[in-house]
Design brief:
The chain has 14 helices and 29 strands. It is an alpha+beta fold and 638 residues long.
Length: 638
């Protein structure tokens, strides 16, 4: 058989890059270059070493000399992305070195030759006592990472250069040939075996610059202590114990020795000790919450799956992708948990557990356990609406929920199109919904789907996905007495929900607190306040929006974090904007809630009531303040 020919060298003069230009390109595009190295490196290194090696290779990508005036010749690299994000040859020079080193790092060590520097563990950067790894991705990212792991290093590089860098086939071959690959065409053919899911390469799951930290194997670290250190520590402890009077010593008091087995901790790892509510318990329960959910799913009897889920919960390994909502502890269960669900969903086996304070989701592929994920969400005090549904799966931008046993029907409502009405959502016998498109996480807000549930009493409630296990409850109305929201209540505020994604949000209320006639007969505008409450108490977000009748969504007039305004403790709000009329005149507009009796602008303008409209200049910088009926001063949100 004739061996494949090497890629032809492109003709034409090669660009020359100064060393200082290469350094500037590396600093400017460092996150992109590190992501490139991380994707090309072999996953067999483990995620912690893969992250550190990606940073080390990128930091070593500069030419060796730093003398001013020295230059480096860059091999010609064809393709629409060959010059980097800005068509910069300096970026192409650094990228080539990153690819070359990443390919070298994947070569096996041989006794017949000295190893290359890239094949050895990096000297810098170094992290002691912690394991670093990117944030958890979804099922698509896990599947793509497994498929890339089965490719050769050159094929991985071809896939990434084509998908992330936008190089055409000739450009990919040129880069691979310059990086030392003997048969770049074969690498391209091998990369074609994987579906072109290039948008996933930009996922946070492949970002080695946004990291999570976990401790290393503490038991192994203890076992590797030197004998002399152990002996000295033991001697010091024994001497201190002998010198202390009485039967107890130190802050541990009557606690058992550190090596003693805790019965509750041991029971928490036993699948036979898992609690399960009877099927009809919710009908008789004094509380309608997660504790009344029965165990559902076709794998509730799979003891081995449940054992793995409990073990990973207690001791997540290095390959497990762990995520937790802000303010949620990610530690082991304090005792036997309650089983909510165990079953096969799409291409994964999923287990949902509840320990009274948290919902824990364990997911693993149907074949094997590599790429398992563990997610935590805080749900302490959740009742009624807040315990209506839990995310059981995310894939291809779609969401599937496990609904509560008291839910009679489910539907999907696009909040941006309230006139369209809800679309019925099919559910399985176990209460798992069919997949539907969740809100876009890319920043483009063309639609915003919310989950609409009707319970067996006929009450209808809406919630929305904000990137966490438990959807956020949507309400509307005055903070002291919010009501269940409708799509019309959120038609112009839905896109603002993207600003509180992944913040541990429990509920979001939208309150239209004022309506104002615009100057010069330009119609009317509504002032609305959107407040997001968190499960942890702290970290609330408040937005004041200015909405005109002809605008598709509201404009943010003011915002605040951890402010009591617009909430039940402080049910008032004040905000202002600079507004331009159709005739081109500029006005300072302000509005407060109904309990605001006067508004004052920093220029001296003062009006009675809760609405202000005064002529001003485009460059004016005014501050507003107000007074309540009892004389209390009110400031704008900030």
């Amino acid at each position: 058989m004739q061996s494949p020919s090497k890629s032809p060298k492109p003709s034409g003069p090669a660009p020359v890059v100064d060393v200082e230009q290469a350094e500037a390109a590396l600093v400017e595009h460092y996150p992109r270059l590190v992501r490139l190295a991380y994707l090309v490196l072999p996953p067999s290194l483990g995620r912690n070493r893969r992250v550190l090696t990606a940073h080390a290779l990128t930091q070593r990508a500069l030419p060796r000399s730093r003398r001013t005036g020295e230059a480096v010749v860059v091999p010609s690299q064809r393709g629409r992305g060959s010059g980097g994000p800005h068509g910069d040859p300096a970026y192409a020079c650094v990228r080539l070195q990153v690819v070359r080193c990443a390919l070298d790092a994947g070569l096996p060590l041989r006794w017949t030759s000295w190893p290359k520097r890239a094949q050895l563990p990096p000297l810098l950067p170094q992290v002691r006592g912690l394991r670093l790894f990117p944030r958890s991705g979804g099922a698509e990212e896990l599947a793509l990472d497994q498929e890339l792991a089965e490719l050769s290093g050159a094929a991985r590089a071809a896939y990434v250069l084509r998908g992330m860098e936008g190089l055409d086939d000739d450009g990919v071959c040129a880069v691979l040939a310059a990086a030392g690959c003997e048969y770049p065409e074969e690498a391209l053919d091998e990369a074609d075996d994987i579906d072109a899911q290039y948008e996933l390469l930009a996922s946070p799951g492949f970002d080695p610059c946004t990291l999570q930290a976990r401790p290393t194997d503490l038991m192994r670290r203890r076992q590797h202590m030197k004998a002399a250190g152990v002996a000295v520590a033991a001697a010091l402890v024994c001497g201190a114990l002998l010198g202390m009077p009485g039967d107890g010593w130190g802050p541990d008091g009557a606690a058992a020795p550190p090596y003693a087995q805790n019965p509750a901790a041991q029971a928490a790892l036993d699948p036979g000790q898992l609690r399960a509510a009877p099927a009809g318990a919710w009908k008789r329960s004094a509380r309608v919450d997660f504790s009344a959910w029965p165990a559902r799913g076709n794998l509730v009897g799979d003891k081995e799956l449940l054992r793995r889920a409990l073990a990973v919960w207690a001791r997540p390994g290095e390959s497990v992708q762990v995520s937790a909502t802000p303010g949620t502890a990610a530690g082991a269960p304090p005792g036997p948990a309650q089983l909510l669900f165990a079953g096969e969903i799409d291409s994964a086996r999923v287990v949902l557990l509840y320990d009274g304070l948290r919902i824990v989701r364990y997911a693993e592929p149907r074949k094997g356990t590599s790429g398992a994920a563990l997610d935590f969400a805080r749900v302490d005090g959740a009742t009624g609406t807040e315990a209506d549904a839990v995310v059981v799966d995310r894939a291809d931008g779609n969401i599937r929920y496990l609904t509560a046993p008291w839910v009679r029907s489910a539907s999907v409502q696009d909040l941006l199109k309230p006139a369209a009405g809800p679309v019925a959502l099919r559910r399985s016998e176990d209460g798992v919904t069919a997949p539907f498109a969740g809100p876009s996480a890319t920043g483009h807000c063309a639609s915003w789907n919310a989950l609409r549930l009707r319970d067996r009493s006929g009450a209808v409630r809406m919630s929305t996905d904000l990137g966490e296990l438990v959807p956020a409850h949507l309400t509307a109305g005055r903070p002291q007495a919010p009501r269940e929201a409708t799509a019309a209540d959120w038609s112009k505020s839905a896109c603002s929900l993207a600003s509180v994604r992944s913040h541990g949000i429990r509920s979001v209320n939208s309150w239209t607190y004022a309506r104002q006639a615009l100057p010069e007969g330009n119609g009317v505008a509504d002032w609305a306040c959107t407040r997001a409450e968190t499960w942890r108490g702290m970290g609330s977000r408040t937005l004041a929006e200015f909405r005109t009748a002809d605008g598709p969504s509201g404009a943010v007039a003011a915002q605040a974090a951890d402010s009591p305004d617009c909430g039940p403790r402080s049910p008032h709000v004040l905000a202002g904007v600079l507004w331009k009329s159709r005739a081109g005149s500029w006005y300072l507009l302000g509005a407060g809630s109904k309990n605001v009796t006067s508004i004052t602008a920093s220029g001296g303008t003062r009006v009675a009531g809760n609405l202000l409209a005064t002529r001003t200049e485009r460059t004016a910088q005014a501050r507003l303040s107000g007074r309540l009926g009892d004389g209390t001063k009110v400031q704008t949100l900030r």
